[in-house]
Amino acid sequence: MNKNFYAIIMAGGIGSRFWPISRTSYPKQFIDILGTGKTLIQSTFDRFLKIVPKENIYIVTNEIYVELVKEQLPEIGAQQILAEPIMRNTAPCIAYASHKISKLNPDAAFVVAPSDHLILNPEGFVADITRSLETATNNNCLITLGIKPSRADTGYGYIQYTTDSIENDFHKVKTFTEKPNTELARTFIQSGDFLWNAGIFVWSAKAILHAFENHLPDMNDVFKDGSEVFNTEEEHNFIQSAYYQCTNISIDYGIMEKADNVYVLPTDFGWSDLGTWASIYSLGEKDYVGNVVIPSEKVIMYDSSNCMVNVPENKLVILQGLHDYIVVESNNTLLICRKDQEQSVKHIVAEVKSRFGPEYI
Question: I want to staple 91 with a disulfide (CB 3.0 to 4.6 A). Which of 41, 154, 178, 254 is the partner?
Answer without folding.
Answer: 254
